[in-house]
Amino acid sequence: MLIEAARRLPTGHAVGVDLWSGTDQSGNRPEVTLANAAAAGVADRVEVRTADMAALPCADGSFDVVTSALAIHNIPSPEGRYRAVDEAMRVLRPGGQLLVADFWPMARKYAAHIGQGTLRGLGPGYWYGGPWLGITLLHAVKGRYTDGPSSARGDSGLRTGRPSAGGVGSPEVGVD
Length: 176
Description:
By secondary structure, this protein is of the alpha/beta class. It has four helices and eight strands. Helix 2 (30-39) links the parallel strand 1 and strand 2. 41% of the residues are buried.
C-alpha cells in the first residue's frame, strides 16, 4: 500500500509505519520495503519508520491521508485497536482522510468508535473463504474545526453499506 500511495503523489511523500514482524507476513522488513520502493521508482517519495500504530511517532495534524490495510485487527485488545484508530485520526490534518480496509465486523466497530465514516464492502474478490468474512473500507474525514481530544471523532456522522470484501496486509501509511 505504501508504494501505491507514493505512486499517486504529485508532491510530498508517503510514510510507512510498522513493527516489521515476520510472524504473519514473511519478508516484512524495512529494507525489503525500501528495495521495493526503489524498484517501483518511488524511493525518493517513501520513508519507513519502526513504530506501533497505537503510538505513532508523528505530530498532530501531520498527514493529509492515513491508510491501513488488514493491520489494525491484529492488535489483541479492543482498546488497543481503538487507540490505533484514534492515533490515525490524531495525525490527520483537519479535512484529512482516513481509509481503513479491514474485516467487516472490525471496520464497523472502528466507525462506531470514531462516530463517523462511510463503510463500503470491497466485493467477492476480497472475501476470506466466503461473504461472512469480507473486507470493508472505512472512509472518514477529520473535522475541520477541532479543539481538544474529542476532535479525533470528526463531524460527519456514520453511514454504512453492505459488508463484504478483502485485501492484503500492509503497514499503516501516512501521506503528507
